[in-house]
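Supplementary Note 3. Input sequence used for the single-chain structure prediction.
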Amino acid sequence: MTAQAPAMLDPTQLETFLTVAQTQNFTEAGRRLGLKQSTVSQHIRKLEAAAGRRLFVRDTHSVVLTADGEAMTGFARPILEANARARDYFAGSQVRGKIRFGAAEDFASSRLPDLLRDFVRRHPQVDLELTVGLTGLLYQQLDAGELDLVLGKRRPGDAQGQLVWQDRLVWTSAPGKRLDPDQPLPLILYAQPSVSRGAVLEAMERFGRPWRIVCSSGSLSGLRAAALAGLGITPQAQGLIPDGLVEVAASGLPPLGSVEFVVRAARRPRRGPAVELAQAITAQGGRLRP
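The predicted structure, written as discrete structure tokens, is reproduced below.
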């Protein structure tokens, strides 16, 4: 007996699915999409019915992708991107103007360039000016009116910015790096002002183990070079660990908690290139993680 082919996948349901996968929360997904939680649940049920597979395992505490759900994310993104390109081609993008966009150093080796290239291709009348730097400095430029939008980090509990995703902050080092338990921990940190630096130093004070800063750098390449040279350990978001570095086992090291990646705008315009780019980042934030 021939198996029945799955129904065509609905782009609206796919967008809801990706938002739930990204936020791991039906309520937050509904808030971000402007939908009721019941509508979000309905979209997921219909998509699961169309695919003939269960996409999430969910209970009162968590929402986790199944293996088929993981596979669906790989299909959903290009479908939505192709749909958006077709819509823009036939409608013609009306977005124009200049946007001064700041991105944290953490994204230097991510797929952010791919996302920005697609954005510029879809909106050819937008002049995009990119600044890459430390999150703290980018926020200062945002507050000073020198940037229009920033993709950066924040500590959990900070309400500023729109959440793109949350990640664990972990210790990383060169492969095979050994730490002497009788010596202060050698730390490789971003220079001030830095969200991760503050989280690490607070964790060290609570943990009570002696430490020393062996390298302070304003760039991710500087941190990576120092770590690859074996100078010490450096905190990184688990999903954005630089090439060549590996996560260090937590034995004898303080837990660092989590970090949130957000987009923050200088003001709250209803339309324009900053709004369009912010929406692209929140909708496609999963592309930025390996």
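The longest helix spans residues 67-91. The CA atoms of residues 99 and 128 lie 5 Å apart.
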